[in-house]
Amino acid sequence: MKSTLLILSVCLVSFLSFSQKDKVYFSIEEALKTPELVYKLNLSEKGYTHLPESIGDLTNLVWVDLSFNNLTSLPNTFNNLNHLTDLYLNYNQFDSVPDLVYDLTSLTYLDLAGNHLTYLPEAIGRLYRLNSLDLNKNELSSVPYSISNLTNLTWLDLSSNQLTENPKSLASLFNLTNLYLNHNHFIAVPDCIKGLKKLNYLGLSGNNITKIPDFIKNFTALTSLNLSENKITLLPESIGTLSNLKYLYLNKNELEVLPKSVGGLIQLSSLNLKNNKLDLLPTEIGNLTHLAYLNLASNNLKSIPKSCEQLNSLTHIP
């Protein structure tokens, strides 16, 4: 009987401990009543312009959401939170990343989207455990060399910045599966990414790209490729080697013809060709038997190939 009670007691303690780690606190005041038991803190959309120094007393925190406030700095005690793995600082008023953040070397997720960052210091390379970094909607014109240290990154968003040059430091990020470079000022696909063969998603929409390089064939793991809103006039034949591709966005370009090799995209389920200059489609498009969505609006097409009758999976044709 005593043995059974002991086992039940241990199980109850374990359950309570797990439940406590899963609990999210929504105010600092409430959290500070039992600081050693607080693991998750959500202060999103609280209107904060600064945080109290007492947040540094929550030394067991692993997850903190400070998004959608008006913060421009962090308190000096913030680097006491050395167990943090997830930090959301998105949509605040930071014009630079507080130096204290670079002391949080346990971080695996860092969201800095929607601030006013004009540069990243080399110190970003100290966060070597990061697997996800969101820098979307800032004002970055370059990427520091030290970002090449972040070899655990699988997800990187640099969309909606001011990037124009080939960010060479990305070349070492061989574990990236998701790379977002949408809405920058690239005139060519950066060749630094040609070795990133684990990519599942590649976003390059909203740039000034005119040509897709042959090294696109390297990305055989791609399932989604967004090249919309560019100035692309021609696709290479090698695009047909992307046999795992499911989503291909080419809308708002200047394509006049598609290569016959598109027939090799046998897993494709969505193809957007809206707003181009196409006057014909290759017969091989009929090979895309998994295609459920096809948008051909606003082109110069007078007819479509008879082979399109084979596209039995189509459910949506705008």
The number of strands is: 13
SSE run = HEHEEEEEEEEEEEE
What top-tier CATH class of the largest domain fits best? Alpha Beta
CATH fold category name of the largest domain = Leucine-rich repeat, LRR (right-handed beta-alpha superhelix)
List low-pLDDT spans: 8-16
Q: Any idea what the radius of gyration is? A: 24 Å
Shape label: elongated
Report the biggest beta sheet as strand number plus sense, adding barrel if it closes: 13 strands, parallel
First and last CA, distance: 70 Å
Number of alpha- plus pi-helical segments: 2
Order of neighbouring strands in the sheet with most strands = 1-2-3-4-5-6-7-8-9-10-11-12-13
Description:
Helices cover about 10% and strands about 10% of the residues. The chain is mostly loops. It folds into two domains: about 20-175, Leucine-rich repeat, LRR (right-handed beta-alpha superhelix) (Alpha-Beta Horseshoe), CATH 3.80.10; about 190-200 and about 215-318, Alpha-Beta Horseshoe (Leucine-rich repeat, LRR (right-handed beta-alpha superhelix)). β1 (about 25), α2 and β2 form a beta-alpha-beta unit. The longest helix has 21 residues, at about 1-20. It is elongated, with a radius of gyration of 24 Å.
